[in-house]
Structure formats: C-alpha cells, structure tokens
Amino acid sequence: MSAGHATLVALMFVAAAYGFVRGPARAWRGTIDLDVFYSASRAWLLGTNPYDEANLNAVFRAAGGQKPLDLSLNPPVTFVLLAPLAALPWGVAEKGWTVLNVVLTGACLWALASLVGLRLGQPRTTFFLAFALALAPFHTAISQGQLTVAVTALVVLALSAEVQEKGTLAGVALGLATALKPQMGLLFLLLELVRLRWRALAGAAGTLAALAVVAVGRMALAGVAWLPSWKESLATFTRGGTGDPTAANPSRLLMINLHVVLHSFTDRRWLVNLLVLAFVISAGALALAGRRERGPRSELLTYSVVAVLSLLGFYNRFYSATLLILPLAWSVVSLNERSLRRTATAVALGIAPFLVPATAVMSRLVREGALGAVGVHTWWQVLAFHEVYALLVLAVALVVASRRSPSG
Asked: CA Rg, the chain, in Å?
C-alpha cells in the first residue's frame, strides 16, 4: 500500500468515527424528528386523527414518549410504510430506526460502489468511502431520526434497477421513496415520464395508488376527518412556519432550496416560484437532451442531476442532502477521465461544504444572539446560504457534464 493510499485509509477511519459520534451516538440518546413520524403513524394505526396535535401527544405519551410534539405534515401514504415501526413501543422503535438508518447508509455505499465498478483496495474506492462517511447530512438524518436515508436508499435501488432494465422494480422503489418524502421523490417520477419509461411509471403509480387506498381507507372506516386538519397544518407550515422561505421564518437558514436565496431579494412568492420552476425545467432539459444510453455511469449522471434539482426545487433541509451521495459517486469515477476531470472536480468541490453543518451552527448563533447585530443584516443572511450556492454549482457542473458526455 502506498503512502497516499494509507493516508486515505486513515481518513476513512477518521470519517467513520466522526460520523458515528454525530449520527448514531446522538440518535441513541434521543432523536428529534422521529417522534412525530412515529406518533402520526401510530395514530393512523389506532384509527384516530394523525394531524391533530392534541391527539398526537396523547398517542405518544401512551406509547412511552414524553416531550411535546409538533404538527404532523406527512401525507397519509407515509403512515402505511411506517406502520410496522409504529406498532412497536416508542423506545424500541427509536432504537430500531437508528439501527436501520445505519444499515441503509452502508447499503447505499455498497450499492453505488458496485454499480460503478469501485472495488475494495482501490485508492479511489477508499476516497469515495472516506468522503461519503464524512457527509454531514447522513449524520444529521440519523441523529434526528429523519426519513431521508431510507429515501436515498430507495433511489439508489431504483437506479440499480434502471441499469439492469428492471423498470417495474425501479418504479416501485421510486413510488416508495415518494411516499416517504414527496419533495425528494417527485422529480425522479417526472424523469421517468419525460423518458417515457412506462414500466417504471406503472410500478410507481400502482405502488402509490395501493398505499393511498390503504391509507385513506383506514381513516374513512374509522370516521376520521383528517383532510381539513392536514390542510391547516400545511398552511401553518408554509406561511410563517418552519417551511416558510421568506424572512418571516427565522429558521429559514436551515433550508437548502433555491427559494430562500431568492426571497432575500423579493417577497413575491409567485415570482420566486416561477424563477425556481424555470431554473429546474431549463437545467433538466439541458441535461437530458440527447441522452439515450442506459449504462451505469450514464444513469448515475442523470440521477445525480435530478437529485440536485430536487434539493433546489422543493422544500428541503440539510438532512435531505443525503442524495448527494449520487453525484459524489459520479465524480469519483469520472476524475480519471481527462475530458471530465475538471467537471468532476467541480462536483466534488460543490459537495465539500456538506462535510460540516456550518449553516446549522450559524443559525444557532443567530438565535442565541451570539453574533449581535451582524446576524440580522440582510447581506449576512444572503452570504449564509452557502449550501444553496454549492448546490447551484453542482447543478451547473452536472449539466455541463451531461452535455459533454451525452452517452455517459
């Protein structure tokens, strides 16, 4: 083993230790977001309103939970998938979800490495593992008990199925991913529609339809008036709540979608939505034009573009950036190609800011007043959205790569 490879191996173990401390170790002491997912799913199982705050808290306390809960925002189809978890006592469910997230993280790394031909013992494989294990969105998702690791694993499964021309399996995986996190999965479904991959679309549509029938049917049989409560929760979330991209939301620094940057310059929601939509459509069209090859690297590049555009185009937070494992894998296998080396380097550099949760730290300092008047200045808040800028760099670099390498 060369000195350079030995250094990479050492960095890989450091990254694993860093990830363990920030992810599973914190989750074992208690997650942050899983309690709402769990309680809403358990309420659905019990035939009560999963969108009623008082009911959620009662259900959570009865299952062994203690802290007060926020409003539930997940669509009903999510509860069907989380029902097996919700059937368990809270303490068992929380620990079990943490273990599952760790397993799914390892599965993502193994599947992507196998897909692009990375083999153990190769320096570039070690580099990929070190970089991936150090990605802070995975640590944050695991520590908070988020659903994004599972969504990313399903997207990777869909990618592998696409490469093997198993369209139905790919569609089922994307349908499940969309059911868990619509903002992370919808654009992948649109990709299948644009490419006219009917088997994948049929698999996704069938999966979502079956989940919807079970989800809505359960509440209809129980006589639960859930729709008004859900609409009210979503309205509160997007207008002044933690999902509001405007200055009315003090925690908007934690969001990574393009809306938050644009709202630093205008309060017109329609204009911001239009600009974001135009960017996503334009970038997607440029990336997809002329691409026909279904090989591993070509599909990986296409999925990487869609992953970044999903993060920019819809409400997302730092933990959703687990999807960046896709462009990371593409950049690692493309660094050795002279025609793509600069672009692959730009992609890797665009992912680098996600090695540390800097915005979360800055946001906390602002809330605590540690930055004084600096933290409320508009110019400072604009500069604080460095993760959004990094995603823009990624989007541009991946589109350029798609145009230079139409066959992947």
From this structure: 21
Return per-residue pLDDT of the chain as tens, 408 residues. 687 788 888 988 999 999 999 999 999 999 999 999 999 999 999 999 999 999 999 999 999 888 888 889 999 999 999 999 999 999 999 999 999 999 999 999 999 999 988 888 888 999 999 999 999 999 999 999 999 999 999 999 999 999 999 999 999 999 999 999 999 999 999 999 999 999 999 999 999 999 999 999 999 999 999 999 999 999 989 888 888 898 888 788 889 999 999 998 888 999 999 999 999 999 999 998 866 666 888 899 999 999 999 999 999 999 999 999 999 999 999 988 888 889 999 999 999 999 988 777 776 766 666 555 555 555 566 667 889 999 999 999 999 998 876 444
DSSP 255: B
Q: What is the distance of C-alpha 371 from the center of its chain?
A: 30
Give the C-alpha separation, 86 to 70, whole Å: 17
Domain span including residue 124: 3-404
Chain centroid to Cα 15, Å, comes to 20
Residue 342 tokens read as 């600069």
Instruction: Return the number of other C-beta atoms located less than 10 Å from residue 373's C-beta.
Output: 8
Q: Identify the three-state secondary structure at position 377.
A: coil
As a whole number of angstroms, the distance between CA 226 and CA 220 comes to: 9
* CA 337/CA 313 separation, integer angstroms: 30
Termini Cα distance of the chain: 31
Residue 345 one-letter amino acid: T
Structural domain total, the chain: 1
Token pair, residue 117, equals: 């031909």
Supply the pTM of this predicted model: 0.93
- The amino acid present at 56, given as its one-letter code, is L
* Beta bridge partners of residue 317, listed in sequence order: 255
Check: CB of residue 15 under 8 Å from CB of residue 127. Answer: no
